[in-house]
Amino acid sequence: MRGDLDMALVRAFLTVVEAGGVTRAAAALGLSQAAASQQIKRLEEVLDCRLFERQGRGLVLAPAGERLLAQARRLVALNDEVLTSMRAPPFEGEVRFGVPYDIIGSFVPAILRGFAKAQPRVRVSLVCEDSRVVREQLKSGGVDLAMTTETECGRHGETLRTDRLVWVGAPGGDAHLKDPLPVSLGAPTCLFRPVAIEALGAAGRDWRAVCEVSRLEPVYAVLEAGLAVAPLLRSSVPGRFEIFEGKAAREARLPALPEFRINLYAPPAASPAARDLADHVRASFSGRPEKRPNN
């Protein structure tokens, strides 16, 4: 006969694991030690297995507890997500969302799909510019919320993920071996541009610009034609391109490039709808594996 798990019991189990014992877990849960112990006992009865074993004066996970741990974390996370979503007010209006060209295709579609389902009466206006321009528009009120790719994180910002800038080209191409190196660089406002130029200069690698725009369509066209290489964030590189690293990078004398941060800026005075979109952005990154897109 099937039953339902009491989320309070599952949460108590996770708290005991994270706190390293029942006493500290009871304090975190606002319960007496006896009440916390009783919750663990009730969960063991429901699951018909022992979740903890005593080791010295402390507790360690039993084999069944180890099996439960990952599933329990997913259950609690889903429970909290459902509650947050259902309790969120039905906002109306518009949110102007600024995002740079280099990450819009990799991350934004999933964010917008989830937000549209949760808040169908809010219109999201997407503003695509280089990160520097997006930050300026946020300050001037041109956008309500912004994602950026930067080497640091500014005021009112939070880093969602750290990613490395890498050299990218066509598989089987020879652009990376040419001298001077043909490079597709962003516009003057692109933050990747000065970093790549500085790295090439420090490595003594002569180069020439082939394409100097930030929009990715022409950059991808140049790469696919085998006419140049380009600096892109690893997680944004489509699967049809090759990342030059290790031996390939050394043979081509391609210098190592620094890490960048994918940042989110949600000003304190942001509207409730913008703050809710910010929550969707955070949730998307918290549960998203770091992998290259297939396109």
Walk me through the structure.
By secondary structure, the chain is α/β, with parallel strands linked by helices. The chain folds into two domains: 7-87, Orthogonal Bundle (Arc Repressor Mutant, subunit A), CATH 1.10.10; 93-295, D-Maltodextrin-Binding Protein, domain 2, CATH 3.40.190.290. Helices cover 44% and strands 22% of the residues. It contains ten helices and eleven strands. Strands 3, 4, 5, 6, 9, 10 and 11 form a seven-stranded mixed beta sheet that branches. It has a two-stranded antiparallel ribbon with strand order 1-2. Strands 7-8 form a two-stranded parallel sheet. Helix 5 (101-118) links the parallel strand 3 and strand 4. The mean pLDDT is 91.
Percent helix: 40-55%
Strand content: 15-25%
Shape: globular
User: Briefly, what CATH class of the largest domain?
Assistant: Alpha Beta
Order of helices and strands: HHHEEHEHEHEEEHEHEEHEH
Q: End-to-end distance, in Å? A: 46 Å
Radius of gyration: 25 Å
Number of helices: 10
CATH architecture annotation name of the largest domain: 3-Layer(aba) Sandwich
How many structural domains can be distinguished in the coordinates? 2
Mean pLDDT: 91
Q: How many beta-strand elements?
A: 11
Largest sheet: 7 strands, mixed
Oligomer: single chain
**Can you tell me the CATH topology of the largest domain?**
D-Maltodextrin-Binding Protein, domain 2
Structural class: alpha/beta
User: Spans with pLDDT under 50 lasting ≥5 residues?
Assistant: none
